[in-house]
Write a structure and sequence with these properties.
Length: 227
């Protein structure tokens, strides 16, 4: 357990260093950024949750996230690195989505009504459609892959939403909040890359990204502990 806490604090330190690096414009990204997901993965592995399908799905989602982070660091040198990073995160979101379907109780406790599910899901879909529509004129050959990625990201967020009532409220709040943070982070990244540079873009992108990954993993641990 002490080792688990060590990796948790290591994640916070790695995240703060990378957030500060972006705020100050320092250039040691290749050393600091990979540590974020690496320490989070170790935190999850040592959390004591049961080894099984869900455990390995989350491990693979974190590995693909780490790969995505690594590839995106080189996107300025070759556009294929951006495609590779986008594909890696797309796979991570698919794995997260599958996990959410499995991280549910058999019987619900005060779940969302069908009309609530529909209303909230449509809202998330409209946000995704609006973002892609705004970006579309500037995407060029990347229009299709970015659209597919946005669709999968929205789907991941909806699957997190649909866990309401099928998991402890803390687990739901963390996972759904993490999914929303992922949408915010990726939206900021896309606007900054394809439209116009945003003030302190790197700071806000990495801050919301770190929050997203940690909240998702922490929420998953919370469900597995109380299962």
């Amino acid at each position: 357990m002490q080792l688990n806490k060590l990796f948790k604090y290591s994640f916070f330190v790695a995240s703060m260093i990378e957030v500060l690096r972006n705020a100050m414009g320092w250039s040691f990204e290749h050393y600091s950024k990979p540590l974020i997901i690496f320490t989070l993965l170790l935190y999850y592995v040592t959390s004591g949750v049961k080894r099984g399908l869900i455990f390995y799905l989350i491990i693979m989602a974190l590995i693909f996230s780490w790969l995505g982070d690594s590839l995106l660091m080189y996107q300025q040198t070759n556009s294929m690195y951006f495609i590779g990073g986008l594909s890696s995160f797309l796979l991570a979101h698919i794995l997260y989505s599958i996990s959410y379907f499995k991280l549910r109780w058999t019987e619900a406790v005060n779940p969302l009504l069908p009309t609530q599910k529909l209303r909230h899901s449509i809202t998330l879909i409209l946000v995704g459609v609006a973002l892609v529509s705004i970006l579309s004129p500037n995407l060029g050959d990347l229009r299709l892959p970015v659209t597919i990625y946005a669709a999968v990201l929205v789907f991941m967020t909806i699957t997190a939403l649909l866990r309401y009532g099928y998991t402890p409220i803390r687990s739901f709040s963390l996972v759904f909040g993490g999914a929303i943070c992922f949408m915010i982070s990726d939206s900021l990244l896309a606007i900054n890359k394809f439209m116009e540079p945003l003030p302190y873009a790197g700071f806000w992108i990495i801050l919301t990204y770190c929050l997203a990954q940690f909240m998702i993993v922490e929420g998953i641990i919370n469900h597995q502990e109380k299962k």
